[in-house]
Design goal:
Blueprint lengths: L2 H20 L6 H24 L3 H19 L6 H18 L1 H24 L1 H7 L2 H8 L4 H4 L6 H22 L5 H23 L3 H34 L6 H33 L6 H28 L20
Amino acid sequence: MDLDVYVTAHRAEWDRLDHLLNRGRRLTGAEADELVALYQRTATHLSVIQSTAPDPALTARLTQLVARARAAVTGTRRASWRDAARFLTAGFPAAVYRSRHWWVPTAVLSTLVAALIGWWIGAHPEVQAAIAAPEELRQMTRPGGEYESYYSSHPAASFAAQVWTNNARAAALCLALGAFLCFPVLWVLFINMLNLGVGIGLMSSAGRLDTFLGLVLPHGLLELTAVFVAAGTGLRLGWTLIDPGPYSRRTALAQQGRAAIGMAIGLALVLFVAGVIEGFVTPSGLPTWARIAIGVAAEAAFLVYVYVLGGRAARAGDSGDVEAADRSAALPTAA
C-alpha cells in the first residue's frame, strides 16, 4: 500500500472528524450521525495502517483521534461494583479456564522437576554436602529447626502479608516476563521448583518428609497453583510473539496482555488467601491432617471456581479481555 496516496485520500475525513470533535456537544442530528460514521471509518483506516504500513507519527495521531471519537460516541465509562462482580464471577475464571492448556502441563512438569530434584538430593549425600555443612543441615532439618521455625518466626499477620507480597511478585514476574519469548518465565519457575526440591530432598534424607509436607501442603497447593497459572499465562504470552495467529503481533499481544493484567489482579486475590493460610493455619496447633484438609479444600474450591464458573463463562464467549467498547479497533490481517 502506498501510504502517501492513502493519506491523501482520507485526510479530509480525519480533519472533518477532528473539527466535529472540537465542537463538542454543539452538533446537529446530522452532524452527530456524520461523527459516528467518520469514527467507524477512521478506526478502520487506523487498523489498515497499523497492519500494512505502520508510521509512528500517523498512527499516534489516528489513535488519539479514534480514542477521542470513541469517548464522544460512547460516553465516558466509569468502573462500578457490577464490573468488579463480573470480573470475579466471569472474566477472571474464564481467563484461567481458557489458559488451562498452558498452566496444567506447566504444573505437572514443574511438580515432576521438583520431585526429581528432591529425589536426587535425598539419595546422594555428596550433593547434600555441596549444599551446606553437615551441622548446618542438621540445624535446618531437626525438630524445631529452620524449616519448621520459618513459619512461626514472625507474627501471623505480618508473616501472611510478607508471604503474599513475595508470591504476588513472583506471579507478576511470570506474567510480565512472558513477553520475552518465555525464557525468563522458565527461569523463575525453575528457581521456585529448585527451592521446593531442596526442601524435599533434605527433609527426606533426615527422615522427616512427612513433617515437611505437613507444613507445605496446607498453603502450598493453592499457592503453587497460582504460580503455575501465572507461569502458564506468561508462556502463552511469550508464544503469542512467536505465533500470533490471524492477527498482527501487536494486536494479538495486546489482547493476551489485557487478559494477563486481569489475571494478575485475580491471582493476587488467590495468593492473598494462600498467604492467610500460610500465616495462620500452617504454624497453628491444628493436627497435620486438619491443616492439610484446609489446604485441599481451598485448592478444590479454586478448581471448582475455575472449571465451573470459568468454563461456563468461556463457553458463553468471555475471554477475560476488557469489554469490547473499551478495546482499540482492530482488523484481522491474515485468514
